Amino acid sequence: MCKLFGGIEEMKNSINYVKIKRDKEGICNICGDMSILSWDHIPPKSAIFFSDVEITSIFNKYSEEKYPREYSQNGTKFRTICGKCNNELGTYYDVSFVEFINDATKKIVTGFPNEESITCKIKPTKVIKSLFGHLLAAKGDYEDSLIDIEMRKFLLDKSLWKPEFNIFYWFHPYPNIEIMRDVAICKIETNSKPKPDVFSILKMYPIAFYVTKEETYKHLNNINNLKYYCSSDFDEDVEVPLNISTKELIHSNWPILVDDNTLLLAGPSIKSSVVSKPRNLRKINNLS
Question: With the C-alpha atoms ordered 26, 28, 33, 36, is the resulting torsion angle positive or negative?
């Protein structure tokens, strides 16, 4: 049974929680300067719809064994970026990210389950820059990987409006929040050379984002690419589609559905990948 959040007003301003922190002074994951580090909420705290949560490493989510859990009523926080970058991210881009999430939520609550598709108002470039900023922050250590270098360039260069990455997004009507960086998934098929798809994920209600250089999922009807809606006018509102049909709901764990023909590979940043879910399910309504 799938779950859907209800009661927008009673749940807004709540946040999800886990701490990833370095020393108070260190290298900012965004600008690369040595500075006093500040806490970054991932996702932005105004876009989250529940508070009291159970959190764990992404490793534990996909394990069948019992594992220790941590509980909190505060937010998913990474002390990995400087105050200046944190402030600019919140001021210039997070507002648009929160507006997108709130607009989608209101239309889903109104249209679900009768509507198969809705359109949401969004400033695509600003939302993508917000997403990249928080994905950069979602690492326990500063990295100069090619992916991080390109994300930083797109975020910090105010003349860039269309990213090199594909930003696939889809309806995520589940209470789990997942943050994963630089994971590779690879299908092993007979008589073909495996091609890994390196991706990063942010899943939250009601949207999940999948960032990759590959075009692996462009053919799927219930997944869209935010990249194609970008405009050189950062402040231009555009309408983007969102498939909310119950007939085409994507599994909560997707695309981490590993089988005998699939490999999942990860580097050091997987240590900072986390998943959380609400402890109090009474605030969540059943989908019917």
Answer: negative
- Would the CA dihedral through 19, 22, 23, 28 be positive or negative? negative
Buried b / exposed e over 162-188, threshold 16 CB at 10 Å, is ebebbbbbbbbbbbbbbbbbbbebeee
The pair of three-digit structure tokens given for residue 67, joined into one six-digit string: 């594992």
For range 91-118, the mean pLDDT:
92
Q: Between the ranges 2-6, 17-21, 191-195, where is the mean pLDDT highest?
A: 191-195
Indicate the SS3 state at residue 55. strand
The answer to whether 143 and 169 have CB atoms below 8 angstroms apart is no
Q: What is the largest CA-CA distance in the chain?
A: 55
Q: What Cα–Cα distance (Å) separates residue 69 from each residue in 18, 142, 246? A: 11, 26, 31
Residues in the chain: 288
Both structure tokens of 258: 């590993």
Stated pTM of the model: 0.86
DSSP letter for 228, please: G
The label of the residue with tokens 């990063």 reads: 200
**pLDDT tens readout for residues 112-166:** 878 889 999 999 999 999 999 999 999 988 999 999 999 999 999 999 999 999 9
> 20 pLDDT exceeds 50?
yes
Residue 14 pLDDT = 30
| Residue 114 token pair | 């009768």
Q: What are phi and psi of 283, to 5 degrees?
A: -90, 5
Burial classification of residue 89, based on how many CB atoms lie within 10 Å of its CB (0-12 exposed, 13-18 middle, 19 or more buried): buried
- Specify the pLDDT at position 62: 62
